Amino acid sequence: MSANDRLTRSLPHLQNLIKRDSDAYREDFKLQYLHFESQFMELTAKPDTWNKSLAENISFVSQVAHCYPEECKGLSQMFIDVLRLYSTLLNNDIRLVIVRALILMRNRGLIDCIQLCELFFLRLLQCQDRLLRVTIQTHIINDIKKQNEKHKNNKLNSTLQNFMCTIIKESNAIAVKMALDIMVSLYRKNIWNDAKTANIIASTCFSKITKVQVAALNFFLCNNLNKDNDKDSDSDDVSKNGRRIS
Q: Which residues form the SDA1 N-terminal domain (predicted)?
């Protein structure tokens, strides 16, 4: 098969072949990866330009990176570096493709959770892109939930709680609000339902950022309201002679 034939082969088709037998298609992957690297280097020259072929290649290499750990050992760092350097300059769609590629690699255990959170909060929340923010917030909540499915991951939880506490003290309103929303969501899902989380949320009741202050106050008001409703429900279930109605 010629080089041109390999490069023009349908990427989804090649992806399926690789997942069936990665060793048999290692050379095909290497050739495609070289093509991807060449395109990715061009991104730094024109970061604000949409490139469909590059987007497809980014998705492809991230999908099969776990099949070729040696060949792709520098892939996640390539993505992270370009997001750090060109976060606000990148074309919105290309940036989202790279973020989704990193999320996929994180879901497969190829990237550290803390490293990705730092990138998202410290660099990408500077971008005026609502879809990007929703994608990031959804991923972080789902990732932490997954890490606590079998048992509480106390070490990771403590590290991330400290990180969120640091973010909440920052002046970036978008980052502060997202950190608060994540903590509130995890508290309500009974994942981070401890005193440390409650205290961090409580500290935002005095925030100078109006949206943050309102969200924090609503959290505590809703919690108290739910507790009062539970008490009323218990009272209704008790008869006049003090026996609970079955």
A: 60-237
